[in-house]
Write a structure and sequence with these properties.
There is one protein chain. The protein is an alpha/beta fold. It has one domain: Isochorismatase-like (Rossmann fold, 3-Layer(aba) Sandwich), CATH 3.40.50.850. The protein is built from seven helices and six strands. A six-stranded parallel β-sheet has the order 3-2-1-4-5-6, sandwiched between helices. The longest helix is centred in the first third of the chain and has 16 residues. The relative contact order is 0.18.
Length: 175
C-alpha cells in the first residue's frame, strides 16, 4: 500500500515566504491520495525552544490551515527524521504501507532525512521534488547559485534507491 507523508507544512515555516505554487502542488498530491483512499500522514515538527516559531504552544507549530483538514494521521517529531523516536513506523506497519511518497518543507533537512530513513527501513520511496520547499537559500549556506531542491533531487536520484520525480512525472506514473 502507498501512503503520503506531508512533512512540516506548518504556519511558522509557511509564513517565511511565498509558497503558493508549492502549496498548490502539495494539495493536488494530497487530493489524489484522498480520492483513492490512500493514507495521508502529516508530520509536525515540534521545538521546545521558547523562541522557536515551531514551539509546541505557538500558532507557528500548527499545520497550515490550507492543508490541515486533509490529515488522516498526525505524527509529531523533534528531529529532521520523521522516524526517530516517533510513532511513524508503528503507524505504517499497522496500515501495511510499503511505498512512501514525500512532500513538504525543509527539503534538505526533514524531507531528505525522512526519505533516507524510510529507505533504510525497507520502504520504496518516491520524493516529489517540486512539492517540497525550504526556507533556506543559497545565502544561508554561503553557496552562490545553489538551488536546494535541484541539489537534493540530484543527490537522492543519483543514489538510485530513492525515486525522484517532479509533479508532472508523478501524475503520469501514479495517477
Amino acid at each position: 500500500m502507498n501512503a503520503l507523508l506531508v512533512i512540516d507544512v506548518q504556519n511558522g515555516i509557511v509564513s517565511c515566504g511565498d509558497y503558493k505554487e508549492e502549496l498548490f502542488l502539495m494539495e493536488q498530491v494530497i487530493k489524489d491520495f484522498k480520492e483513492s483512499n490512500r493514507p495521508v500522514i502529516f508530520i509536525r515538527h515540534i521545538d521546545d525552544a521558547e523562541e522557536s516559531p515551531l514551539n509546541r504552544s505557538s500558532i507557528g507549530s500548527e499545520i497550515h490551515p490550507t492543508l490541515k483538514d486533509y490529515s488522516d494521521y498526525l505524527i509529531e517529531k523533534q528531529t529532521p527524521s520523521s522516524f526517530f523516536q516517533t510513532e511513524l513506523t508503528q503507524t505504517l506497519e499497522k496500515l501495511g504501507v510499503d511505498h512512501l511518497f514525500l512532500i513538504g518543507f525543509e527539503t534538505e533537512f526533514c524531507c531528505m532525512f525522512t526519505a533516507i530513513a524510510a529507505y533504510d527501513r525497507g520502504y520504496k520511496v518516491t520524493f516529489i521534488k517540486d512539492a517540497t520547499r525550504t526556507t533556506n537559500t543559497a545565502d544561508t549556506y554561503g553557496m552562490q547559485g545553489l538551488d536546494i531542491q535541484q541539489f537534493v533531487g540530484k543527490v537522492l536520484g543519483w543514489s538510485s534507491v530513492i525515486e525522484v520525480v517532479d509533479y508532472e512525472q508523478y501524475v503520469e506514473k501514479y495517477k
